[in-house]
Amino acid sequence: MPKQTHTTLIEAVHRDRDARRAVILALVLLSVWLLLLAAFHFLPALDVAMSAAFFEATACAEGTADGIVCGDFPYQRDTLFVFLRQMLFYMPSLAAVVVIIALVRALQHHGATYQPRKVRDYAISLLTLFIGPYVVVNLLLKSFSGRPRPHQTDIFGGELPFMPAGSFAGGCENNCSFISGEAAGAGWLICLIPLLSEKMRPVFGPALIAVSLVTPAFRVSFGGHYLSDVVLGWLSSPAVFAALLAVFEIARVRKNTL
Questions:
Q1: For 133, which of 30, 47, 91, 183 is 20 to 30 Å away at the CA?
Q2: Quick one: three-class SS letters along the chain?
Q3: 3-state secondary structure 57-112
Q4: How far apart are CA 251 and CA 249, in angstroms?
Q5: Rounded to an integer, what distance in angstroms lies between the CA atom of residue 112 and that of residue 82?
Q6: Higher pLDDT among residues 67 and 96, named by residue
Q7: Which positions ≥6 away from 213 have C-beta within 8 Å?
């Protein structure tokens, strides 16, 4: 893109309120994500303290070497909590089916009844679910981060050394702790609230918020993730949603300007 055209596009985005807000939101969320990553990386005691609150130490078996920590996370054995976690695990998938149905129905309208903004928002939400929780989190970060889960680390009854958030030097080989896929899926549910009509938001909004917050809490209490994993995982989905929204808004402005 020529420099003059590039400058014209930037000016056009700045003048367009929706595009400007979308870009600012995306930059803010990305900045917050990076700042939180830095905070958790340089203050690893935050992760250790939170996981320690749910860890129950027990006496080691006779003959266990000195310095070995024995115990587990008792909530992961609680039948009710396990059931609730499994139920919440499928909520993003069920919500995605609802969004797909809504998108198909919206695409069936033509002419005066066709709502391009609604179609765009549905598409962005589905793209967010695919790019964020699936590609970025599960296929990339969790596969290559190397960070052991709390129950895998030697300070909580495991065998691998603790690694701070953002370190890729851990001994986990696959499906690692950084960052939480379930928390990312839960964070995606928050992105659906703007898609609800004004009448439906008071009905379904609180439920989406509750599921979105309880799911990451279960992962920490079960020893499946550190606090940083769920916080950064949760925030990753709104950040991806905002980034995609900014891309769509910039494309709209570019189409109307150049």
A1: 47
A2: CCHHHHHHHHHHHHHCHHHHHHHHHHHHHHHHHHHHHHHHHHCCHHHHHHHHCCCEECCCCCCCCCCCCCEECHHHHCHHHHHHHHHHHCHHHHHHHHHHHHHHHHHCCCHHHCCHHHHHHHHHHHHHHHHHHHHHHHHHHHHHCCCCCHHHEHHHCCCECCCCCCCCCCCCCCCCCCCCHHHHHHHHHHCCHHHCCCCCHHHHHHHHHHHHHHHHHHHHHCCCCCHHHHHHHHHHHHHHHHHHHHHHHHHHHHHHHC
A3: ECCCCCCCCCCCCCEECHHHHCHHHHHHHHHHHCHHHHHHHHHHHHHHHHHCCCHH
A4: 5
A5: 49
A6: 96
A7: 186
Residue 160's beta-bridge partner residues?
Answer: 153
Instruction: Give residue-wise pLDDT tens across range 182-222.
Output: 999 999 999 999 999 889 999 999 999 999 999 999 999 99
